[in-house]
Amino acid sequence: MKLFDYVLSGNCYKIRLLLDFLELSHEKQAVDFFPGREHKSDAFLQINPLGQIPVLEDDGAYIRDAQAILVYLASRYDPTGTWWPINDPSELGRVAQWLAFADSITSTASAARLHDVLGYDLDVAQARAGAHKLFRVLDDHLANQELQGFNWIAGSNPTVADIACFPYVALAGDGGIELFYYPAIQRWIRRFVKLPRFKLMPGINIFD
Amino acid sequence: MKTSELEAGWFPAGLQNYVLPKTAGRVMIFDNDIALWRGEDGKIRAWENRCPHRGMRLSYGIVRGNTLTCLYHGWTYDGAGACAGIPAHPELTPPKTIRAKAYRAADSGGFIWVANPDETTEAPSIEGDWVPNRSVHIDLAPTSLNELIKGMDAELALKITDRAAVVRVPGVTGEILLAFLNMKEHGAMIHTSIPASASVDAAIAVSKLTGRLRQIFKASSAA
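ok -> C-alpha coordinates follow
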Protein backbone atom coordinates (compact mmCIF):
# COMPACT_ATOMS: atom_id res chain seq x y z
CA MET A 1 0.00 0.00 0.00
CA LYS A 2 1.39 3.40 -0.98
CA LEU A 3 0.21 6.90 -0.11
CA PHE A 4 1.09 9.78 -2.44
CA ASP A 5 1.61 12.31 0.29
CA TYR A 6 2.50 15.92 1.08
CA VAL A 7 3.36 16.61 4.70
CA LEU A 8 1.61 20.02 4.90
CA SER A 9 -1.61 18.78 3.25
CA GLY A 10 -4.55 18.36 5.63
CA ASN A 11 -6.20 16.02 3.16
CA CYS A 12 -3.13 13.76 3.12
CA TYR A 13 -3.02 14.03 6.92
CA LYS A 14 -6.52 12.50 7.09
CA ILE A 15 -5.17 9.37 5.42
CA ARG A 16 -2.03 9.29 7.56
CA LEU A 17 -4.24 9.48 10.67
CA LEU A 18 -6.41 6.52 9.66
CA LEU A 19 -3.41 4.46 8.51
CA ASP A 20 -1.93 5.00 11.99
CA PHE A 21 -5.21 4.40 13.85
CA LEU A 22 -5.63 1.08 12.00
CA GLU A 23 -1.89 0.28 12.28
CA LEU A 24 -1.63 -0.47 8.54
CA SER A 25 1.84 -0.90 7.15
CA HIS A 26 2.38 1.29 4.10
CA GLU A 27 4.92 3.39 2.27
CA LYS A 28 4.69 7.08 1.54
CA GLN A 29 5.79 8.74 -1.67
CA ALA A 30 6.35 12.47 -1.16
CA VAL A 31 4.76 14.68 -3.82
CA ASP A 32 6.41 18.09 -4.29
CA PHE A 33 3.12 20.01 -4.02
CA PHE A 34 4.78 23.34 -3.19
CA PRO A 35 6.68 24.87 -4.83
CA GLY A 36 7.14 22.06 -7.39
CA ARG A 37 3.44 21.60 -8.34
CA GLU A 38 4.28 17.96 -8.97
CA HIS A 39 0.57 17.08 -8.57
CA LYS A 40 -0.05 18.94 -11.85
CA SER A 41 2.78 17.17 -13.71
CA ASP A 42 2.08 14.89 -16.67
CA ALA A 43 3.34 11.91 -14.71
CA PHE A 44 1.04 12.57 -11.75
CA LEU A 45 -1.96 13.32 -13.98
CA GLN A 46 -1.61 9.72 -15.19
CA ILE A 47 -2.25 8.66 -11.59
CA ASN A 48 -4.99 11.21 -10.84
CA PRO A 49 -6.36 13.20 -13.80
CA LEU A 50 -7.80 15.71 -11.31
CA GLY A 51 -4.25 16.65 -10.28
CA GLN A 52 -5.02 16.34 -6.56
CA ILE A 53 -3.50 14.62 -3.57
CA PRO A 54 -3.84 12.33 -1.70
CA VAL A 55 -3.92 9.22 -3.83
CA LEU A 56 -3.71 5.72 -2.38
CA GLU A 57 -2.33 2.80 -4.31
CA ASP A 58 -3.52 -0.56 -3.02
CA ASP A 59 -3.82 -3.94 -4.70
CA GLY A 60 -2.73 -2.40 -7.99
CA ALA A 61 -5.51 0.21 -8.03
CA TYR A 62 -5.37 3.98 -7.46
CA ILE A 63 -7.99 5.61 -5.24
CA ARG A 64 -8.26 9.41 -5.17
CA ASP A 65 -10.18 11.84 -2.90
CA ALA A 66 -9.41 11.94 0.82
CA GLN A 67 -12.94 11.03 1.92
CA ALA A 68 -13.14 8.13 -0.57
CA ILE A 69 -9.80 6.78 0.64
CA LEU A 70 -10.98 6.95 4.27
CA VAL A 71 -14.13 5.02 3.37
CA TYR A 72 -12.10 2.46 1.44
CA LEU A 73 -9.52 1.89 4.17
CA ALA A 74 -12.06 1.66 6.98
CA SER A 75 -14.38 -0.65 5.02
CA ARG A 76 -11.59 -2.97 4.06
CA TYR A 77 -9.18 -2.92 6.99
CA ASP A 78 -11.05 -1.94 10.19
CA PRO A 79 -11.85 -5.24 11.92
CA THR A 80 -13.99 -3.42 14.53
CA GLY A 81 -16.26 -1.91 11.88
CA THR A 82 -16.59 1.28 13.92
CA TRP A 83 -14.75 3.89 11.84
CA TRP A 84 -17.14 3.37 8.89
CA PRO A 85 -20.09 1.49 10.40
CA ILE A 86 -20.99 -0.42 7.31
CA ASN A 87 -23.37 -2.82 9.08
CA ASP A 88 -25.53 -0.17 10.71
CA PRO A 89 -27.34 1.85 8.03
CA SER A 90 -28.70 4.55 10.33
CA GLU A 91 -25.30 5.16 11.92
CA LEU A 92 -23.68 4.98 8.52
CA GLY A 93 -25.99 7.76 7.36
CA ARG A 94 -25.03 9.88 10.37
CA VAL A 95 -21.34 9.42 9.45
CA ALA A 96 -21.67 9.81 5.69
CA GLN A 97 -23.56 13.12 5.85
CA TRP A 98 -20.40 14.79 7.19
CA LEU A 99 -18.16 13.75 4.30
CA ALA A 100 -19.49 16.36 1.88
CA PHE A 101 -19.39 18.80 4.79
CA ALA A 102 -15.69 18.01 5.20
CA ASP A 103 -15.17 18.77 1.53
CA SER A 104 -16.84 22.15 2.05
CA ILE A 105 -14.41 22.81 4.91
CA THR A 106 -11.60 22.11 2.44
CA SER A 107 -12.96 24.61 -0.08
CA THR A 108 -13.26 27.35 2.59
CA ALA A 109 -10.98 26.96 5.64
CA SER A 110 -8.27 25.18 3.66
CA ALA A 111 -8.50 27.76 0.87
CA ALA A 112 -7.96 30.58 3.40
CA ARG A 113 -4.89 28.73 4.70
CA LEU A 114 -3.49 28.26 1.16
CA HIS A 115 -3.93 32.02 0.69
CA ASP A 116 -2.22 32.99 3.95
CA VAL A 117 0.50 30.34 4.08
CA LEU A 118 1.34 29.60 0.42
CA GLY A 119 0.23 32.87 -1.17
CA TYR A 120 -2.58 31.46 -3.33
CA ASP A 121 -4.55 34.11 -5.23
CA LEU A 122 -8.17 33.74 -4.10
CA ASP A 123 -10.95 35.66 -2.30
CA VAL A 124 -9.81 35.07 1.27
CA ALA A 125 -12.65 37.06 2.88
CA GLN A 126 -15.19 34.86 1.13
CA ALA A 127 -13.26 31.72 2.11
CA ARG A 128 -13.17 32.77 5.77
CA ALA A 129 -16.86 33.73 5.82
CA GLY A 130 -17.74 30.35 4.32
CA ALA A 131 -15.64 28.57 6.95
CA HIS A 132 -17.35 30.47 9.79
CA LYS A 133 -20.78 29.41 8.49
CA LEU A 134 -19.70 25.76 8.53
CA PHE A 135 -17.95 26.04 11.89
CA ARG A 136 -21.16 27.38 13.47
CA VAL A 137 -22.99 24.31 12.22
CA LEU A 138 -20.26 22.02 13.54
CA ASP A 139 -20.06 23.83 16.90
CA ASP A 140 -23.85 23.63 17.33
CA HIS A 141 -23.78 19.93 16.51
CA LEU A 142 -20.83 19.10 18.80
CA ALA A 143 -22.29 21.15 21.68
CA ASN A 144 -25.59 19.29 21.49
CA GLN A 145 -23.78 15.95 21.16
CA GLU A 146 -21.88 16.76 24.38
CA LEU A 147 -25.09 17.64 26.21
CA GLN A 148 -26.38 14.16 25.28
CA GLY A 149 -23.16 12.49 26.44
CA PHE A 150 -21.64 11.95 22.98
CA ASN A 151 -18.02 12.97 22.42
CA TRP A 152 -17.89 12.53 18.64
CA ILE A 153 -19.58 13.76 15.50
CA ALA A 154 -21.67 10.64 14.92
CA GLY A 155 -22.04 9.42 18.50
CA SER A 156 -20.07 7.70 21.22
CA ASN A 157 -17.02 6.66 19.18
CA PRO A 158 -14.85 8.43 16.63
CA THR A 159 -15.56 7.69 12.97
CA VAL A 160 -14.35 8.64 9.52
CA ALA A 161 -16.53 11.78 9.92
CA ASP A 162 -14.27 13.05 12.72
CA ILE A 163 -11.10 12.32 10.73
CA ALA A 164 -12.52 14.01 7.62
CA CYS A 165 -13.40 17.19 9.51
CA PHE A 166 -10.43 17.38 11.89
CA PRO A 167 -7.39 18.66 9.92
CA TYR A 168 -8.72 21.84 8.34
CA VAL A 169 -10.66 22.75 11.47
CA ALA A 170 -7.56 22.33 13.63
CA LEU A 171 -5.46 24.25 11.05
CA ALA A 172 -8.02 27.06 10.64
CA GLY A 173 -5.90 29.55 12.58
CA ASP A 174 -3.30 29.40 9.78
CA GLY A 175 -5.97 30.92 7.52
CA GLY A 176 -6.93 33.71 9.92
CA ILE A 177 -10.03 31.92 11.23
CA GLU A 178 -10.38 32.32 15.00
CA LEU A 179 -11.37 29.21 16.93
CA PHE A 180 -12.15 30.98 20.22
CA TYR A 181 -15.61 31.58 18.77
CA TYR A 182 -16.22 27.83 18.93
CA PRO A 183 -15.69 26.30 22.39
CA ALA A 184 -17.36 22.96 21.55
CA ILE A 185 -15.08 22.59 18.51
CA GLN A 186 -12.06 23.32 20.72
CA ARG A 187 -13.06 20.63 23.21
CA TRP A 188 -13.54 18.15 20.33
CA ILE A 189 -10.02 18.97 19.04
CA ARG A 190 -8.63 18.28 22.54
CA ARG A 191 -10.38 14.90 22.60
CA PHE A 192 -9.14 14.08 19.10
CA VAL A 193 -5.46 14.61 19.93
CA LYS A 194 -5.83 12.15 22.82
CA LEU A 195 -6.87 9.27 20.54
CA PRO A 196 -4.48 6.30 20.71
CA ARG A 197 -1.78 6.45 17.99
CA PHE A 198 -2.70 10.06 17.11
CA LYS A 199 0.18 12.05 15.59
CA LEU A 200 0.45 15.82 15.13
CA MET A 201 1.13 17.45 11.78
CA PRO A 202 3.07 20.72 11.35
CA GLY A 203 0.79 23.64 12.20
CA ILE A 204 -1.30 21.77 14.76
CA ASN A 205 0.31 22.65 18.07
CA ILE A 206 -1.94 21.02 20.60
CA PHE A 207 -0.13 18.93 23.13
CA ASP A 208 -1.70 16.43 25.44
CA MET B 1 -0.81 53.23 24.19
CA LYS B 2 -2.99 50.36 25.16
CA THR B 3 -3.22 49.95 28.91
CA SER B 4 -4.51 46.35 29.04
CA GLU B 5 -6.86 47.53 31.75
CA LEU B 6 -10.37 46.13 31.82
CA GLU B 7 -13.41 48.11 32.87
CA ALA B 8 -14.24 47.68 36.55
CA GLY B 9 -16.04 44.55 37.73
CA TRP B 10 -16.04 40.89 36.82
CA PHE B 11 -16.37 39.66 33.22
CA PRO B 12 -17.94 36.31 32.24
CA ALA B 13 -14.94 35.08 30.23
CA GLY B 14 -16.32 31.66 29.29
CA LEU B 15 -17.85 28.48 30.57
CA GLN B 16 -15.86 26.54 33.15
CA ASN B 17 -15.33 23.72 30.64
CA TYR B 18 -13.83 26.11 28.08
CA VAL B 19 -10.53 25.56 29.86
CA LEU B 20 -10.07 22.03 31.16
CA PRO B 21 -7.33 21.14 33.66
CA LYS B 22 -3.84 21.12 32.09
CA THR B 23 -4.93 23.20 29.09
CA ALA B 24 -4.79 26.82 27.97
CA GLY B 25 -7.26 28.83 25.90
CA ARG B 26 -7.72 32.29 24.47
CA VAL B 27 -10.39 34.88 25.19
CA MET B 28 -10.95 38.49 24.16
CA ILE B 29 -12.43 40.77 26.82
CA PHE B 30 -13.35 43.87 24.82
CA ASP B 31 -10.01 44.38 23.02
CA ASN B 32 -7.85 42.73 25.68
CA ASP B 33 -6.28 39.49 24.51
CA ILE B 34 -6.16 37.12 27.47
CA ALA B 35 -4.78 33.62 28.01
CA LEU B 36 -6.80 31.42 30.35
CA TRP B 37 -5.23 28.27 31.75
CA ARG B 38 -5.61 25.67 34.47
CA GLY B 39 -2.86 23.69 36.08
CA GLU B 40 -3.34 20.15 37.26
CA ASP B 41 -4.55 21.79 40.50
CA GLY B 42 -7.66 22.85 38.54
CA LYS B 43 -7.21 26.51 39.49
CA ILE B 44 -8.15 28.97 36.74
CA ARG B 45 -5.64 31.69 35.78
CA ALA B 46 -6.03 34.67 33.43
CA TRP B 47 -2.95 36.41 32.06
CA GLU B 48 -2.24 38.99 29.43
CA ASN B 49 -1.85 36.88 26.27
CA ARG B 50 1.74 37.71 25.53
CA CYS B 51 4.95 36.12 26.67
CA PRO B 52 7.20 38.77 28.26
CA HIS B 53 10.06 37.37 26.17
CA ARG B 54 8.95 37.77 22.54
CA GLY B 55 5.25 38.52 22.72
CA MET B 56 4.06 35.06 21.65
CA ARG B 57 0.47 34.28 22.68
CA LEU B 58 0.65 32.32 25.93
CA SER B 59 -2.67 30.68 25.02
CA TYR B 60 -0.62 28.48 22.66
CA GLY B 61 1.42 27.39 25.66
CA ILE B 62 1.85 23.98 27.22
CA VAL B 63 0.68 23.32 30.77
CA ARG B 64 2.88 21.03 32.83
CA GLY B 65 1.92 20.52 36.44
CA ASN B 66 1.01 23.99 37.63
CA THR B 67 3.26 25.88 35.21
CA LEU B 68 2.71 27.33 31.74
CA THR B 69 5.45 27.03 29.12
CA CYS B 70 5.51 29.34 26.10
CA LEU B 71 5.39 27.43 22.80
CA TYR B 72 7.99 29.71 21.20
CA HIS B 73 11.20 29.46 23.28
CA GLY B 74 10.01 27.49 26.26
CA TRP B 75 10.09 30.19 28.91
CA THR B 76 8.17 28.71 31.83
CA TYR B 77 5.99 30.59 34.32
CA ASP B 78 4.73 29.43 37.69
CA GLY B 79 1.09 29.62 38.73
CA ALA B 80 1.48 33.19 39.95
CA GLY B 81 3.09 34.48 36.73
CA ALA B 82 6.77 34.53 37.78
CA CYS B 83 9.28 33.20 35.26
CA ALA B 84 10.59 29.89 36.62
CA GLY B 85 12.90 28.76 33.86
CA ILE B 86 14.57 29.71 30.56
CA PRO B 87 15.72 26.67 28.53
CA ALA B 88 18.48 28.59 26.69
CA HIS B 89 20.02 29.48 30.08
CA PRO B 90 19.44 26.40 32.20
CA GLU B 91 21.78 27.58 34.98
CA LEU B 92 20.06 30.96 35.33
CA THR B 93 17.61 31.77 38.08
CA PRO B 94 15.26 34.10 36.21
CA PRO B 95 15.13 37.66 37.59
CA LYS B 96 12.00 38.40 39.60
CA THR B 97 11.15 41.21 37.17
CA ILE B 98 10.20 38.72 34.44
CA ARG B 99 6.50 38.14 35.04
CA ALA B 100 3.39 37.51 33.02
CA LYS B 101 0.73 40.10 33.76
CA ALA B 102 -1.95 38.34 35.79
CA TYR B 103 -5.60 39.33 36.09
CA ARG B 104 -7.89 38.01 38.81
CA ALA B 105 -9.80 34.86 37.82
CA ALA B 106 -12.39 32.65 39.49
CA ASP B 107 -14.92 29.89 38.78
CA SER B 108 -18.53 30.49 39.79
CA GLY B 109 -21.95 29.48 38.49
CA GLY B 110 -20.44 27.29 35.77
CA PHE B 111 -18.57 30.32 34.39
CA ILE B 112 -14.99 31.57 34.42
CA TRP B 113 -14.88 35.18 35.65
CA VAL B 114 -12.02 37.62 35.05
CA ALA B 115 -11.29 41.05 36.58
CA ASN B 116 -8.48 43.57 36.82
CA PRO B 117 -5.66 42.68 39.23
CA ASP B 118 -6.72 45.51 41.54
CA GLU B 119 -10.45 44.68 41.49
CA THR B 120 -11.58 45.00 45.11
CA THR B 121 -14.88 43.06 44.91
CA GLU B 122 -15.06 39.27 44.92
CA ALA B 123 -16.27 37.29 41.89
CA PRO B 124 -20.07 36.94 41.74
CA SER B 125 -21.39 34.17 43.93
CA ILE B 126 -24.54 32.65 42.45
CA GLU B 127 -26.79 30.62 44.68
CA GLY B 128 -27.43 27.04 43.59
CA ASP B 129 -25.52 24.32 41.77
CA TRP B 130 -24.93 25.33 38.13
CA VAL B 131 -23.38 23.46 35.22
CA PRO B 132 -22.06 24.89 31.94
CA ASN B 133 -24.57 24.69 29.10
CA ARG B 134 -23.59 26.59 25.96
CA SER B 135 -21.32 29.25 24.49
CA VAL B 136 -22.35 30.89 21.24
CA HIS B 137 -20.57 33.50 19.15
CA ILE B 138 -22.70 36.38 17.88
CA ASP B 139 -21.70 39.05 15.36
CA LEU B 140 -22.85 42.09 17.33
CA ALA B 141 -22.63 42.59 21.09
CA PRO B 142 -25.88 43.47 22.87
CA THR B 143 -25.83 47.12 24.00
CA SER B 144 -27.13 46.11 27.43
CA LEU B 145 -28.15 43.18 29.59
CA ASN B 146 -31.79 44.16 29.02
CA GLU B 147 -31.39 43.94 25.27
CA LEU B 148 -29.94 40.45 25.64
CA ILE B 149 -32.77 39.30 27.93
CA LYS B 150 -35.33 40.74 25.51
CA GLY B 151 -33.58 39.02 22.57
CA MET B 152 -33.97 35.69 24.33
CA ASP B 153 -37.65 36.39 25.14
CA ALA B 154 -36.64 35.86 28.76
CA GLU B 155 -37.77 37.36 32.06
CA LEU B 156 -35.25 38.71 34.56
CA ALA B 157 -35.17 36.75 37.83
CA LEU B 158 -31.99 38.14 39.39
CA LYS B 159 -29.41 40.58 38.08
CA ILE B 160 -25.86 39.38 38.85
CA THR B 161 -23.70 42.03 37.12
CA ASP B 162 -24.15 44.45 34.21
CA ARG B 163 -23.35 41.51 31.94
CA ALA B 164 -24.97 38.52 33.68
CA ALA B 165 -28.37 37.58 35.11
CA VAL B 166 -30.49 34.66 36.18
CA VAL B 167 -33.48 34.52 33.81
CA ARG B 168 -36.54 32.42 33.07
CA VAL B 169 -37.86 31.64 29.61
CA PRO B 170 -41.59 30.81 29.31
CA GLY B 171 -41.97 27.15 28.31
CA VAL B 172 -38.49 26.17 29.52
CA THR B 173 -38.20 24.35 32.84
CA GLY B 174 -35.79 25.86 35.34
CA GLU B 175 -33.71 29.00 35.54
CA ILE B 176 -30.90 29.98 33.20
CA LEU B 177 -27.73 31.87 34.09
CA LEU B 178 -27.20 34.11 31.06
CA ALA B 179 -24.22 36.36 30.30
CA PHE B 180 -22.56 38.15 27.43
CA LEU B 181 -18.95 39.08 26.76
CA ASN B 182 -18.25 41.99 24.40
CA MET B 183 -15.18 41.23 22.24
CA LYS B 184 -15.22 44.54 20.31
CA GLU B 185 -14.37 43.84 16.64
CA HIS B 186 -14.76 40.12 17.29
CA GLY B 187 -18.45 40.46 18.16
CA ALA B 188 -19.51 38.83 21.41
CA MET B 189 -19.97 35.53 23.18
CA ILE B 190 -23.16 34.47 24.94
CA HIS B 191 -22.75 31.99 27.78
CA THR B 192 -25.42 29.98 29.58
CA SER B 193 -25.40 27.73 32.64
CA ILE B 194 -28.30 25.67 33.93
CA PRO B 195 -29.09 23.99 37.26
CA ALA B 196 -27.19 20.73 37.75
CA SER B 197 -30.58 19.02 38.22
CA ALA B 198 -31.80 19.99 34.71
CA SER B 199 -32.74 17.17 32.32
CA VAL B 200 -30.94 16.49 29.04
CA ASP B 201 -34.02 17.76 27.19
CA ALA B 202 -33.90 21.02 29.12
CA ALA B 203 -30.16 21.33 28.44
CA ILE B 204 -30.72 20.90 24.69
CA ALA B 205 -33.62 23.37 24.76
CA VAL B 206 -31.49 26.05 26.42
CA SER B 207 -28.58 25.35 24.05
CA LYS B 208 -30.87 25.83 21.04
CA LEU B 209 -32.39 29.00 22.49
CA THR B 210 -28.86 30.33 22.99
CA GLY B 211 -27.92 29.41 19.42
CA ARG B 212 -30.92 31.32 18.10
CA LEU B 213 -29.45 34.55 19.49
CA ARG B 214 -27.13 34.54 16.46
CA GLN B 215 -30.13 35.52 14.36
CA ILE B 216 -31.03 38.38 16.73
CA PHE B 217 -27.55 39.87 17.15
CA LYS B 218 -26.25 39.67 13.59
CA ALA B 219 -24.63 42.28 11.39
CA SER B 220 -27.24 43.91 9.15
CA SER B 221 -25.32 42.81 6.05
CA ALA B 222 -25.19 39.17 7.18
CA ALA B 223 -27.43 36.69 5.40
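Chain B has a mean pLDDT of 95.
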